[in-house]
Amino acid sequence: MIYDKIIGIGHSCVPAYQIRRNFGQQEAYFFDWLVMPPSALVSIIKKGLISLFCKEKFVIYEQAGTSATYVPVVQKELNIIFYHDFRKSFGLLDYDQVLKKYSFLADRWNQLMQGGKKILFIRHHIKKDECVETYEAIRSTYFSLDFKILAVNECDPNTLLWNIDGIYSYYIKSSNSWHGDNNEWLRVFREMKIK
Length: 195
Description:
Distance between the termini: 7 Å
Number of helices: 5
Low-confidence stretches: none
Largest sheet: 4 strands, parallel
Shape: globular
Helix content: 25-40%
Oligomer: single chain
Order of helices and strands: EHEHEEEHEHEEH
Number of strands: 8
Mean pLDDT: 93
């Protein structure tokens, strides 16, 4: 593999799932299970990952279903949704535990960003200008990092001919499954010659 690590940067848990499935990379990273718009991603990369944590900005996003284990919680200022962290029976009382978990993940992220590794970041659902802004935020924050971004979108493939240094853009067929179409993701990884 030409990358030391492949890391999902949202917009949801789909990239994390596909990374685990295709590359056997099991350790978790900060953005793996969060749902967030590109503007929030850029903001916390620039300000520091833990900057999103302020207890007063967290609210229940929607009520959990009867069979659900977790209740969705949103950081309302940045519109970052935590679907897999706040237990249904505890809700916002889990805040300190969630903060501890994400502090650990932020430390792991920061060590990796400073460690001289070659990294491929994967972002699902992102527009060209948003991807460029994300690339610039990473480059200016971690100026010695050797990285590329893979943008994967379910839109007209003709709109994905971006030709931007440091960014690969690929079309992927839409899927009804939460984790996407496994064969489509495999195709992208093979076309990139990383699988």
